[in-house]
Design a protein that fits this description.
Structural class: mainly beta
Number of helices: 0
Shape: globular
Strand order of the largest sheet: 1-8-6-3
Strand content: over 45%
Order of helices and strands: EEEEEEEE
Mean pLDDT: 95
Length: 73
């Protein structure tokens, strides 16, 4: 079976929009969610292709760098 891969925040920011839900199939480099940081929208992409197992944040959440945002396996 595939290893689960954590999707982490690249920097401190605010979650603008979650673009997938648990159970969704994603491809590597698909946008999982949008972060707002330094007045810019930062797309956070899937590091691997797989199925979204967990979404750990919601729109409006403020996250620190390296916070786990989602899990894909």
């Amino acid at each position: 079976t595939a290893m689960a891969q954590q999707v982490t925040a690249p920097m401190v920011g605010k979650v603008l929009q979650v673009q997938c839900k648990v159970g969704d199939k994603v491809q590597e480099d698909d946008v999982i969610l949008l972060l707002e940081a330094m007045k810019m929208e930062i797309p956070v992409v899937a590091p691997i292709s797989g199925t979204v197992r967990e979404i750990k944040v919601s729109a409006g959440d403020t996250v620190e760098a390296d916070t786990v945002l989602a899990v894909i396996e």
